[in-house]
């Protein structure tokens, strides 16, 4: 924490409170004293008389969660502690119990980080536009003297184990009764997948090959961020060595799931989005499905082919969840492997997406690569970051280079998207760094590379 230089000496938490959550280094940026203030502020802003909390396996997580509970109970709210859990398990508890929730995790960040993901009852997200600014303002004002006592009672803390109920609920949403035996390599990355996978996948005809299931918030094997290709190399090699049917990798708080096929080749999150969308549309004919603007063009194509309505959104879970609720969408997917389900309170759950993939694979005799090939229709660059002095001026340069070209459309839904008949690219500024992020998709690898290089030349000129 840092102090402002004005006469009030107000604590500045701008480096700790992000757009969608609280996240920073412990104890440099925050500690249990701060967590207690957040608990008090959360209760005041939500007006809750009861909340639910959970935490991941990081060394600092249990203490922060207990401190948050102290702050909440001092404001008169009862607290149900579900203890060790994945983030989507916390969302399950919030949804099924009808309580606002707080999950203590820093997801895939290094061990010295921790954070809080907050939601209202029914797993409705709390972000900058939905209460997080007010919570931050209260905590900043209370840092010197503590939270004022406003309740005539102290809340009660109880504990509850929700893991089995969470697993049962997931299985109620996906029919796995007829799947064939499968060999599945799972890399939990020493994160919460090591806690949830054994229960969720128990009783299925699956030969599970576990990797890094030991809960260890110091991440001794590799970062728990499967979005970085370096962190799934071991999983890919193990799938090949075992002759497995599929590989699954979870991030630190196990709310995202990444898939590799029987060859050890990554299955893009866009292909997983398309696969799950087709399955959900089979259950809910004609429904709406959300996808962000840098998922593959194949996603919208598959949604239409399955009789659904695709809706394109900005990048970021708050936009996805807001649009899910507005449109009554049955499902939503992002390029970052966040998957959202109407039947899961519009919240994201990588575990439910994994069950859909296992159900699809297990009810056909062909391998996963065959199943996903119809969803992998284009060549994609992945996200390419460029450090630039002025992101706005470089975006303007890209716009100028493409504005007058024939058969090209430009839109500004999120950054700048330029689209042709069978290709597109998007340039978006980072929210926190002087970077431009480029994503390119085209029909062939050679066409994608040529387009990528042309746009990068303009960005980096």
Automatic annotation (TrEMBL):
InterPro entries on file: A-D-PHexomutase_a/b/a-I, A-D-PHexomutase_a/b/a-I/II/III, A-D-PHexomutase_a/b/a-II, A-D-PHexomutase_a/b/a-III, A-D-PHexomutase_C, A-D-PHexomutase_C_sf, Alpha-D-phosphohexomutase_SF
SUPFAM superfamilies, sorted: Phosphoglucomutase, C-terminal domain (SSF55957), Phosphoglucomutase, first 3 domains (SSF53738)
Protein's UniProt keywords contain Transport: no
Keywords associated with the record: Isomerase, Magnesium, Metal-binding, Phosphoprotein
Gene3D superfamilies per the UniProt record, alphabetical: Alpha-D-Glucose-1,6-Bisphosphate, subunit A, domain 3, Alpha-D-phosphohexomutase, C-terminal domain
Stretches assigned to the Alpha-D-phosphohexomutase C-terminal domain: 383-456
Similarity comment: Belongs to the phosphohexose mutase family.
Name assigned to this protein: Phosphomannomutase/phosphoglucomutase
Organism expressing this protein natively: Streptomyces aureus
